[in-house]
């Protein structure tokens, strides 16, 4: 395997690891702010990847995908929280669930802003350390933007265990919400895999990208 491909794979993995950690930190921080001490007690209100990493979903599966060239998807350990501890359980559950994707979109927005700043401030540098920094950012920032948009949109798919399922559940009557959650607990992961490998998930993601992509591109100046 060429050295540049190895470097690119390592960079993608590092960006994904940070992005997944930021996603779970968003859940943990929001749950804590809404009154549940559980994430803090379990050490999850942190950006330390070791607190969030899942051996299969965060390490093995992404590395296999990165170096085999298939689409990049990974996951981290879900943040445990107790809905009864939240100040307003029914609405706060939605806030906690949506925080992960929103934190990913914040990272994507930050990447877009830094992309423009990098081009404006360092785009004309010909050599030296600043030129190296410019080239590094020009390589990493697109990865940071793309991976975080992908994670945000993927997690908004409305099927347990993904975050979008909580948004749908909040709109359903209580008896239907309970059935929906029960179905998701038994079959949700299987349904998500089917959506991914049949291409339906990617069509949903492309639809979302068509909405947020032009905004981020305008901010980045591309």
Could you walk me through the main structural features you see in this protein, from its secondary elements to its overall organization?
The protein has one domain. The chain starts with a helix and ends with a helix. It has 222 residues and is mostly helical. It is built from nine helices and no strands. 75% of the residues lie in helices and 0% in strands.
Uncertain stretches of 5 or more adjacent residues? none
- What does the main sheet amount to? none
Shape: globular
Q: What's the average pLDDT?
A: 90
Oligomer: single chain
Gyration radius from CA atoms, angstroms: 19 Å
Question: How would you summarize the topology of this molecule?
Answer:
Elements (H helix, E strand, L loop, with lengths): L2 H31 L4 H4 L7 H4 L2 H14 L20 H34 L6 H27 L8 H8 L2 H24 L2 H21 L2
Helix pairs in contact: 1-4, 1-5, 1-6, 5-6, 5-7, 5-9, 6-9, 7-8
Characteristic terms for this protein:
222 residues, mainly alpha, 9 helices
Briefly summarize what is shown:
The chain has 222 residues and is an all-alpha fold. The chain has helices at 3-33, 38-41, 49-52, 55-68, 89-122, 129-155, 164-171, 174-197, 200-220. The chain is built from nine helices and no strands.
């Amino acid at each position: 395997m060429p050295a540049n491909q190895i470097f690119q794979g390592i960079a993608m993995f590092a960006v994904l690891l940070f992005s997944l950690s930021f996603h779970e930190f968003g859940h943990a921080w929001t749950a804590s702010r809404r009154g549940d001490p559980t994430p803090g007690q379990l050490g999850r209100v942190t950006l330390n990847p070791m607190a969030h990493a899942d051996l299969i979903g965060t390490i093995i599966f992404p590395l296999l995908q990165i170096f085999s060239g298939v689409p990049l998807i990974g996951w981290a350990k879900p943040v445990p929280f107790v809905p009864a501890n939240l100040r307003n359980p029914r609405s706060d559950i939605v806030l906690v669930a949506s925080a992960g994707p929103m934190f990913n979109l914040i990272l994507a927005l930050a990447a877009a802003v830094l992309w423009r700043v990098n081009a404006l401030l360092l785009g004309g540098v010909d050599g030296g350390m600043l030129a190296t920094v410019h080239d590094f950012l020009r390589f990493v920032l697109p990865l940071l933007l793309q991976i975080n948009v992908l994670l945000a949109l993927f997690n908004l798919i409305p099927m347990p265990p993904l975050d979008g399922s909580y948004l749908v559940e909040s709109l359903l009557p209580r008896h239907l919400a309970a059935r929906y959650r029960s179905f998701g607990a038994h079959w949700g992961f299987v349904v998500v895999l089917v959506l991914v490998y049949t291409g339906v998930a990617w069509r949903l993601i492309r639809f979302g990208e068509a909405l947020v992509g032009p905004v981020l591109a305008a901010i980045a100046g591309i």
